[in-house]
Automatic annotation (TrEMBL):
An annotated Gene Ontology molecular function: DNA binding
Family annotation (Pfam families): Helicase_C, ResIII
Domain Helicase ATP-binding: 104-256
Entries under PROSITE patterns matching the protein: HELICASE_ATP_BIND_1, HELICASE_CTER
Presence of the UniProt keyword Nucleotide-binding in the record: yes
Keywords tagged on the record: ATP-binding, DNA-binding, Nucleotide-binding
Organism of provenance: Lactobacillus apis
Entry protein name: COMF operon protein 1
GO biological process: DNA recombination; DNA replication initiation; double-strand break repair
Annotated Helicase C-terminal domain residues: 287-427
Length: 427
């Protein structure tokens, strides 16, 4: 790496190039009192030589007992750009504008914020003013989200809105040298590579796996922000701990219960099945009828199934069914090496039916899509995930409604709570 300034605000293990002549570098023991100083996890695994190492963040490079963690604490210097480099010429609704103004105010007052807004409320656009305010002050901001798909969706939208700013995009599926970006968009795992870097950290889909209840990622998010930095959390389904912090006045909470186009959330339809959804590699005829109705309506279909191993069965059964012979069907899951391409194909309308798992439950926008959830009674579907899945539908102004179908064999508390939450948000 030629330019050490690219490492400002970053941390790395001592086996990597550390620019030892740089006076702004601080070196600490990577493992202290039995804990990893990069992710905060308790260290319990041992190498053959008897030394402890951290298994929780090993994908970022192995931290070993006796090793060093190098941090570049140099203060990044950026120019103060007029209007914060914001080149977006869109408009906000009155409700969106109120939230946007409060986010700017809270940033300047150094107050953390929870934005509780329904799916499709336009949370991305509401962030623009706060990001621009941060940039206009010559400061550094980051938007982190648990899912790679969300990073890939956010990046072009911010690139268009701030087209004079260098924006960094980092996640585990793309590898390039670090840059000194004034605006960074990354997965929450990438935050382990930063230390006291950001004046503003936005965590989108804060209740999403793998960030939710992950102490290592929470530790990384805390360390990535400067001591006087600000955190903003975005979600349609906030966790109890965030709501409790808001109740205790530890962070401010902003509500928005309408989508950007003013429409209501689609209320899911429920459909009881008394026979298995799959039998001898064939799809239940009743489910096939529902799938066929969506295709004939001219809408694309997201078909959610609870298990990765079920995807290939559904895809094969649909492709082998004569009534779907002209339909382009694909399946995608977290481990799929062609995951990004398949999602993009669906977004561009190159495929009509995408069988998927909960990796696409949130943070992605598809125009004119309808949704069927198979085995909605499976334990994998929490009430929050069912609400998020339902939120994929009706996200464009010219098609504000549509089908959300929960298929089940046993009515569960999570299904009931999801419907209750949606109806309450629609009031």
């Amino acid at each position: 790496m030629e330019n050490s300034s690219c490492l400002t605000g970053r941390q790395w293990i001592s086996s990597q190039e550390d620019f030892s002549t740089n006076e702004t570098l601080t070196k600490i023991n990577a493992i202290q009192q039995g804990h990893c100083m990069r992710c905060g996890a308790r260290v319990y695994a041992k190498l053959p030589n008897g030394k402890f190492y951290c298994r929780d963040c090993i994908e970022l490079g192995r931290i070993v007992e006796g090793g060093l963690l190098v941090r570049d604490l140099e203060l990044a210097e950026f120019s103060r750009m007029k209007n914060g480099g914001l080149t977006w010429h869109g408009s906000l609704t009155k409700r969106q504008a109120a939230v946007s103004c409060e986010l700017v105010k809270n940033f300047n007052q150094r107050a953390d914020t929870l934005v509780h807004a329904v799916t499709g409320a336009g949370k991305t656009e509401m962030l623009f003013a706060a990001i621009a305010e941060c940039i206009s002050q010559g400061q550094r901001s980051c938007i982190a989200t648990p899912r790679i798909d969300v990073v890939n969706e956010l990046y072009p939208r911010f690139k268009a809105a701030f087209n004079t700013i260098e924006i960094g995009k980092y996640h585990g599926k793309e590898h390039h040298e670090p840059r000194l970006d004034q605006l960074t968009i990354c997965t929450t795992h990438q935050l382990m590579k930063f230390y006291h870097a950001f004046d503003l950290l936005v965590i989108d889909e804060v209740d999403s796996f793998p960030y939710v209840e992950n102490t290592q990622l929470h530790f990384a998010a805390k360390n990535a922000v400067k001591e006087d930095g600000v955190r903003t959390y975005l979600t349609a389904t906030p966790t109890n701990d965030l709501l409790e912090k808001a109740k205790k006045k530890q962070l401010k909470i902003l509500h928005l219960n309408r989508r950007f186009h003013g429409g209501l959330l689609p209320v899911p339809r429920e459909l009881f099945f008394n026979r298995p959804f799959l039998l001898q590699q064939k799809i239940n005829p009743r489910l096939l009828k529902e799938i066929d109705a969506v295709i004939k309506s001219g809408h694309q279909l997201l078909l959610f199934v609870p298990r990765i191993e079920q995807i290939s069965i559904y895809v094969s059964a649909l492709k082998n069914d004569a009534q779907f012979s002209s339909v382009i069907v694909e399946g995608v899951h977290a481990m799929d090496k062609n995951r990004l391409a398949k999602v993009e194909n669906f977004r561009q309308g190159k495929s009509q039916l995408l069988v998927t798992t909960t990796i696409l439950e949130r943070g992605v926008t598809f125009k004119h899509v309808w949704v069927i959830v198979v085995q909605a009674d499976d334990e994998i579907y929490t009430s929050a995930s069912l609400v998020q899945i339902a939120g994929r539908v009706g996200r464009v102004k010219d098609d504000p409604d549509g089908l959300v179908l929960f298929c089940y064999r046993k009515y569960t508390k999570n299904i009931r709570n999801a419907l209750k939450q949606i109806r309450e948000m629609n009031k």
